Amino acid sequence: MEVLGFKAKSKIAVLVVLVLSFGFVALYGLLKPVSNGCNMTYMYPTYIPIQMTNSGAAPAAKYGLYLYHEGWKTIDFKEHVQKLSGIPVLFIPGNGGSYKQVRSLAAESDRAYKVGPLERTFYEEARLTPEEGGEEDMDAAGFELKNQYDSRLDWFAVDLEGEHSAMDSAVLEQHTQYVVHCIHRILDQYEESFKAREKEGAATSATLPKSVILVGHSMGGFVARAAVVDPLLRKSAVETIITLSSPHQQPPVALQPSYGHYFRHVNREWRKGYEVQTTAAGHYLSGPALSNVVVISISGGYNDYQVRTKYESLDGIVPPTHGFMISSTGMKNVWLSMEHQVILWCNQLVIQVSHTLLSLADSRTGQPFSDTRIRLAIFSRMLRSAIPQSFNWRKQLQLSQQSMHTPTRDVKDRTESLYIPAACPSNVHWSDDGLERDLYIQTTTVTVLAMDGRRRWLDIQKLGSNGRSHFMFVTNLAPCSGVRLHLWPDKRNSTSDLPACIRIHEVTSKMVLIPSGPAPRQIEPGSQTEQAPPSAILRLGPKDMRGFRFLTISVAPRPSISGRPPPAVSMAVGQFFNPAAGEIEISPWSPPLSGYSHKDLSWKEDHPLALNLSFTSSLGLLPVEFSLKTAGCGIKSSGLPDEQAGDIDNSKLCKLRCFPPVAFAWDETAGLHVFTDLYSDKIVVDSSPSLWSSPRSSEKTSVMLVVDPHCSYSSAMTVSVTAAASRFLLVYTSQIIGFSIVVIFFALMRQACAWDRNLPIPSMLKALESNLRFPIPFIYLAIAPIGLSLLVGFWISQPSPSFASFTIVSVVCYFLANGFIAILILTSQFTFYGAALLHIFIKKRFQLGGKTSQWFVNISSGFCSWKVVRVIRANPLMVTALAAISLACLVHPGLGLLVLLLSHALCCHTALCSFLTASFRSHARRHELFDYKKDGNGGPDKLTFKRDGISNQNFSSEDTCSNSPDSPKSFGETQLEIFHHRHGLFILHLVATLMFGPSFVTWLERIGTDHSFPWVLDSALSTGVILHGIFTSNPQFNSFLVSFPPIRNLEVRMHLLYLFAGYYSYLSSLALAPYREFYVMAAVGYTSIGLTLLQRWNKEKGDAHFVNRKHSHRH
C-alpha cells in the first residue's frame, strides 16, 4: 500500500489547515451583520389580480400578474382597473423573490405623486459625459424638471411562484416568456380600460401607453433584458429598464453550461440590437432595433455579497448613449451600500428611484419621453451626484471649464446649453446693502463659523501664488440661500459699479452636494458645540480663475434668537493650496506587514484641505481599517488641571474647532464611495482587480481625504484580515471553483502518466502533492497557463492586467483549489475506507451466523439467478451507461451524473474491500508463518493454515512476497490501483455533479407543477462526461493504439488529453466561466469513446493491434 512520506504529509496538512482557516475567517466576515443605514419604508398594500388570456404558450395558469394599489380603504377591483390611465411599470422579482416586493417602490411612488417633486436645491447637477452624448446639441440636456408631476405610476408585479431563476436556465427562459406575455397583457388592459371609459362617456383625454417600464431586481433585471430581445415581443413595447442589483455581464457563479450559454445569447442579441441592420451585401436595411431602449443598472455596492458590481456593469452590452451603471454608494441623496435584498426597501434609494420615474413623464402625452437622450439626461440628473468620478485634478478641472469660461453666455453655444448657469435664481438674490462690512483675508485659509452676514475678499493673485493655484471650499451652508461665491475681475463695492462690458461670475451653483453626518447636538442654548460636518464642496482650478483677481465668499445674515447669538452649527472652510503637496502613494506591501509608517500618515496644521491617497493595491481586495486622530488644533492649553487634561480632552477641544473628516474613494469598476465622519472606519470599494479582463488601472484605488487644515492629524491604516478574506472569496469564487477541476485534471494526468511509465498508479492525494512540487511540476502546471492567458489576451486585444498582482492572485486561487480538493479527497477516502472496513466486519460476522447466514445466502442466490440481474451483472458498464444517459437526456443531467457517481462509488468500494481483504489475509499468513518457523519447523513451499475458523486456504509464498524486479503485481495491489484510478474519476465527476446541484434542486421544486426536457446542450455535455466515466473506467484505457489514413499505429495517451483539458480549464477559470469546463470534460469523453471504437475496428481489421503491456513494478 502506498504511504505518503512525512514531508508530503506535512505539505498536505499545512495546505488543508490554511484553506480551512481561510474559509472560516472569510465566512465569519460574510456572516457578520452589516449596518446599512437605510430607513424602512411603510405602506398599505393591496394586490389586484389581472386576468390573463390563454393566448400563446406562456404558463398563465402557473404564474400571475397583479396591480398594486396603495391605501387602507377597500376598493372595487374592477372599477379600479377600469380607471387605469397612468404610466405602466412592471416589477419583476429576482431569484426566489415575491411579487409583493414591489410594495416599497409602489408606495413611495404614490406618495411622491401626491406630494410633488423633491425640494429644489442649487447645487451643481450631474452632467452627461461626451461618451454619453453630452456634447451634442440637443434640448434634453437643458431640460428642466417640473414643479408638479403630470402622470402617476401604475405598478404591476409578476408572480413567478418564488422560483429560483438563478439556478436553472430553463426556469430563466420560462420566466422570460411569461414576462413578454405580461407586457402584452398590460398594454391590452389599458386599451380595454380606455374603451370601457369611452363607452361610459368618461374622460378619455389621456394618451394610451405604447410601452411598459420594466423594473427588475436581481435575476429579474436580466429577465427584463431577455424579454426585450425575445422575438415574440411587440415592437417598442419596452423602452425603459431599471435593474436593481442585477447581473448583466455573466451569472454570479456560472456552473450550468446552458445558463452561461443563455447569458451569452441574450448579451449577443443586445449588442446586435444597437447595430445598424444591413443586408448580406452590406446595404442599409433599418436602424438599430434597440435604438429607443434605455437601461439603467443600480448596484448595491460592497455590501451586496450576492452580485458584485463588475457583473452589474453594462459595458460592452449597452452603449453609453443608451444607459449607464451607478452604485448606490455614489447615488444622489442615497450614499449607502446595501445588501442584496435591502435595495428593495431602502427608503433613501426607493424615494430617489420613484421621483426619477415620475420625472420621465412628458406633459404633452402623459407618458415617458420618446427621445432616449431626454430620458438618459433625466436619469443622469436625478440619480448621479455631481461629484466627479475621478479625483485627478487635471481631468476634472478641464471638464469644469465647459460651463464656466465664457464672459457672456451665447445661447447658441453647444457646450453651454448643456448645463444650468452658475448664477443663483433671482428670487433668492441678495442686495449688496444687506451685507455688513467686508473682511479682507490675508491667509490662504479662510474660516466661517457663523452666519454673520459678511463678505470675505480673497486676492487670487496674492493667495494663489507659490504653487497654491487651486481653491477648495467646504461648507454646510446651502448655496444661494446661505452662501454665495463670485469671481471678480476687479475690486468694486457692488456690481453696479462695474462697467456694462465687465461682468462678475457667480460660481455658487458649482458647489457639489456631498453626504454629511448627523448635525452636532447643543448641550444648552448658546453653548459651543462640535463643529458641523460639511455638506457641500466647491473646487476651482487655475483655468477657472484665469482672468479674475478676487474671489468673494458672501455669507447670509442670520437674526439672533431671544437676544442670544445663534448656535454655532454653521461652518465653512476655504483654502488655496497645491494638490501635489497632499499626494501620497501607498505601497501594497505596507498594510500586510506592519501598517503604514507614522511619518507618512501624519499632517501638521495648515496642511492642504484635500489629501490625495493613491493605493497601488485595490481596496476592493485589501480593505483598509482607517483610524484618524486629531493631534492638535492650535489650542495650547485647555485651562483644566493637568490631571484632567490629556489626549481625550484635546480631542474634544479639537472637535469644537475642526469639522469631521470626509473620505471620497474612487474605483474604476464601482465608481464613487463616500465615507463621512471618518475618524475610524473601514475603507472598502466593490472592485474586481487582478482578473484576466481587468485593466491595469483597476489595480489602484484613489482616496481623497477632506480634512480641516486648522488641525494636525495622525493616522494609521492596517488591512482588515476578515474583510480581505471575505472580499477575496467573493471576487474569486468562480475562479476557485474552476481551478478545482484544473487540479483534478492534473492529478488524473499524473495517474495516467504513471501507468504509461509502468509505475504504480498513485493515489489522488499523492498525485496532488506531486503536482505542487517546486519548481518543475508547479511551474508548468500553475505558472505557465498564466503566461499563456496573457498571450491569448494580447492576441484578442484584451486589456492586460498587472502581471505581478494577476500572477499572485491566480496562484493563491490555485492553492485554495488544491486545498479544497485535498479536503474532498480525504473526506471521500476516509468514507470509502470506513465503509469497506464496516463491510468486511459485517461480512465476517455474518459468515459466522450459521443457519441465518445460510438462509440469506440461499435467498441471494435465488435473486442473482434472475435473468435481469444476470444481464446487469454481465454488462455493468453498459447498463450504467444506458441508465445514466437516458436520465441525463430525458429527465435531468444531474440524475445521469448521479448514476455515474454511484457506479464509481460501488467500484471503489468493491476494489477497496478486495484490497483490504487481501491485505488482512497476507498479514495473517505472515503472522502464522512466523509462528510456524518459531516452533522449529521447516519452511515448506506450501503452508496450510486455518483462518478465522472458516476454511483452509493455500497461498504460494512466491505469489505474495517476491523480490524479483519483474514480478507481476499481487491481487491486492491490483485492486488498490483500480481504487486509485476510479477514485480519481469519482472526484472529477463528483465536482461535475455538484455543479449541476443548484439546477437539480430547482428541478425537484418543480416536480408535479411543470415538466420540460433538459436543454440539449446540458444533455449533450453530460452525456460526454458519462462516456468519459464509462470508457475510461479501467486503467488500461489510459492509452490507445489506433490507425487511420495516413497515420498508422498512433499511440494516444490519456495524460496528454488531461494536460490539454487542464490548460483549457485553467483559461476558463481565469475568464470566470467554470461552466466552460464541461466542454472539455465532454470532449475527453467523446474522444475516449471514439478512440475505443477506432481501436476495436482496427483490431478487427488487423490494421493495428492494441498492445496491453504487462504492468509491473518492484515490490
From TrEMBL:
Residue ranges crossing the lipid bilayer per the database entry: 12-31, 729-749, 774-796, 808-841, 877-895, 901-920, 985-1004, 1024-1044, 1056-1072, 1078-1094
Residue stretches in coiled coil: none
Enzyme Commission identifier(s): 3.1.-.-
Listed GO CC annotations: endoplasmic reticulum membrane
GO biological process: protein transport
GO MF annotations, alphabetized: hydrolase activity, acting on ester bonds
Transmembrane listed as a keyword: yes
InterPro entries membership: AB_hydrolase_fold, PGAP1-ab_dom-like
Subcellular location field: Endoplasmic reticulum membrane
Function description: Involved in inositol deacylation of GPI-anchored proteins which plays important roles in the quality control and ER-associated degradation of GPI-anchored proteins.
Name recorded for this polypeptide: GPI inositol-deacylase
